[in-house]
Amino acid sequence: MGAFSGSGRNMTIQNNSALGSTAAIWLASVTATNGYTNNTIRNLEIACGADQSTSTNSTFGIAMCGTTISTIANGTNNDNNTFTANRIIKCRFGIMTRGTTTDNNFNITVSNNIIGPTAFGSDQIGKDGIFMQADSLSFCTGNLVQFVGVTEPQAAGGTDRAGIAIGTDAWSSTSTTTITSGGYRVTNNLVHDIVEENTFSAVGINVGTTRSGGITGNLIANNCIYNVRSNGTSGDAGAGIGHTGGRGDIIVFNSIRLTGDVDPGLATSASTNPIHIGISKHSSAVTDTAHTIKNNIIYMDLYSNTNTLLFACIQAPAAHTWGTGGLNNNDYFFPIANTQGRTGGTGTGTPTFLTLANWQTAYVPAQDGASIQVDLILFLQPIYTYKCRHHSSKCFSSLL
Q1: Backbone φ and ψ of 6, nearest 5°
Q2: How far apart are the first and last CA of the chain?
Q3: Most buried residue, 310, 344, 391, 398, by most Cβ within 10 Å?
Q4: What is d(CA 217, CA 247) in angstroms, rounded to the nearest whole number?
Q5: pLDDT digits (tens, 9 = 90+) for 6-53
Q6: For residues 295 and 315, what is the distance between their CA atoms, to the nearest angstrom?
């Protein structure tokens, strides 16, 4: 569907209904032997009808699932499908895939899409830019995801927001939600302005998969994330990259820049410690001996009206055995003038490691021995500018 030659999006598909459980495009498997396979949806302008600044109705730009339109409607054998070069606005979920835990979708590609408008307003994305569940060996690459969530003057109610959600779109300071799947490649995406100002959570990229203790092998690499914030309360929080579960996952060469006031003049101020983390690993499998977090740049300059709240570049389980994986070659930076900034924290409570030297004592064997604490984004900006597909952005982690 859509133009297969040339460039540009010359066809618009819009579902004007403001009702929930509606989609502009719906791919459904009817039975286990009648999946929706080997299709490409590309070069389309896509929109739904419910204004997500005032509504919480579940509308979908593209939904691939089962016999009802829902994030929990299992679809079987929806394999070898591609969604590429589309522009999607005005829906609660931009692109959503849902297989089954016993028969994952296989070889799904979500690439080079623009999901979200150029500013918050009537065309914004309500909850998730991209939400992929129960897929195997699938790809989310080269997408621009922007202006997802709700800002304080808007009427829509609060919920967890995600730019890209793999396995789960739920996030809190103690998240362990997963779904059986793995082998995702989440690479070269630009994610920005993921905002929740109604007391829930916001996360740029969230990953939560499981293979019943086996290797899930997800790769989250070369992504640029900025302007992610929430005024979370009672366990809700924010993260640039969140990891709720998965064994042998690799988080490398990502650039994360989080800045600004998380509760600017709001009736409800943020109240959870830690309120925001650059990269946060909340896996309940603390003996995941192959998990890797390396070569990432995290710039943290968030703050709150509640000056006792703290913001950390990195957080991981307290009793964690890194084994053949590990933490290293990262840049954890926060301005010294920001008294709410911290390098890291363990467990789910208040971050306690102020400096990199403090953080390097958090684990045995010690981690992050070759990591640094330098404002690389400021230092490299005059020299290098990474041009992503859609934007000029500061993505320098590949230089570490």
Answers
A1: 75, -165
A2: 41
A3: 344
A4: 7
A5: 667 889 999 999 999 999 999 999 876 788 899 999 999 999 999 999
A6: 16
Find, among 158, 395, 357, the residue nearest to 263 by Cα. 158
Q: Residue 260: which residues within 8 A CB-CB, separation 6 or more?
A: 227, 229, 301, 302, 303
Rounded to whole angstroms, how far apart are CA atoms 275 and 232?
A: 7
Look-up of token digits 């079987």 = 76
Cα separation, 302 vs 364, whole angstroms: 30
Interatomic CA distance for residues 72 and 97, integer angstroms: 10
Distance in angstroms (rounded) separating the CA atoms of residues 379 and 397: 13
| Structural tokens at position 362 | 């958090």
Q: Residues 240-250: pLDDT tens digits?
A: 999 998 889 99
**Cβ partners under 8 Å of residue 253, min gap 6:** 221, 222, 295, 296, 397, 398, 400
Radius of gyration of the chain (CA): 20
Closest by CA to 127, choosing from 171, 162, 151, is: 162
Take residue 188 and report the two structure tokens written for it. Answer: 């070269």
Residue corresponding to tokens 């302005």:
193
> Which candidate, 204, 202, 201, places its Cα nearest to that of 190?
204
- Classify the phi-psi angles of 215: left when phi > 0, otherwise alpha if psi is within -120 to 50, otherwise beta: beta
pTM over cut 0.85: yes
The residue behind tokens 């996360």 is: 203
